[in-house]
Fold this protein.
Amino acid sequence: MKKKLPCILASLIVLGVLHPAVIYAQDRNFYTWSSENHQVYSDESKSCAVEISQKMEASLKLFNELFHFDLSDVPSKFRVRIFSEKENFDIYLQTIIAETRTDFVFISYKDLARSEMVGFQREEIELNASLMHYGFIQYLNAMIPHAPLWLEEGMAAYLEYSKYDPFTESFTWQPNLIWLESLKTILKGEKTAGPLPISELIVMDKTSAQEKIDVFYPTSWGLVHFLMSSSDSRYNRIIWDSISALDENLSLTENSLRVKQKAFSWVKDDRLQKDFQAFILSLKSFNELVKEGIEFYGNDQIAEAENSFKKTFELRTDNYIPYYYMGLIKYERKDYQEAHKYYSQALELGIEPGLINYALGVNAFADKRYTLAENYLKQAKAIDTETYGDKADSLLKRIEFLK
């Protein structure tokens, strides 16, 4: 999935210009729910407002586990407005900023009580990612209005694909490597703009960042991911020192310079740049791991293939390819029960049904579960007779003989 770049910095923070009376008049047409820290508006239903508020409270907990701000200092609840349709979202933004957006927006006023995050319903994974990303921007803006851009944007991207558990009503961080391949291309010098030095990134103003948006955004994500994930605790410390150095009363330039002096000064620019690039280039994206696993499998390097496919599950669990190949691997090892499990998961995720029913049939046959094998093989034949008809018939005849 290709990630879209924001067209305005600070994750589409825009300055609201509509008179507040108009906004509050519109509020009367929304279902609303007030949780501990959020006021949520939904044009769909109260249950939708409740669900969004639960996710926002969970995201806020994750944010504050990292930043440790005093939430009692926030003078009002965070406002969140979610539309059931993108069309209604567009109409609402047109009344406020005379334009619209392809993703959520954080509308910022000097008065926090009027500021709000505005979004629209979408697929669950993308909805949660937008709630996390823009929720973080809203959170940080309330605490530190002028945080360094790399920290604000990079941390929002770092956190946005955290996984939500509706049973515990909590988010758990998981890697977001959507920007990895793009950043690797930049660091290898394969893009015209070339790499963005970290020494320049950490003190960037909005104009400079917007001019270099194609490299600013992936590099900001990459720097945060590096500092949070490095095995060198000195680099981990930079994140915490950066957060500690922030001052709500300082400007963007002042906060950026303060963070540079207090968090980055111990390491030389060239050493930091070298270690950062080595770390990023050592990472593998989901697509890279899948390609690597398939190549290992094709070369009969089964253990290596299994290792690659297992790593994909740390990044994504919504793609059938790793499950299918894990099924093949388990089948080769005669672990038929595990093979059945992986094949079934691949089927649930949308793999071609003729292929997977044939694979399930072959697996059940090897496990001597002949009746089950017959069912799968007949389904494969019915779905795609041209591809699986002869193969299925051959095995069905053997089953008939063995029975």
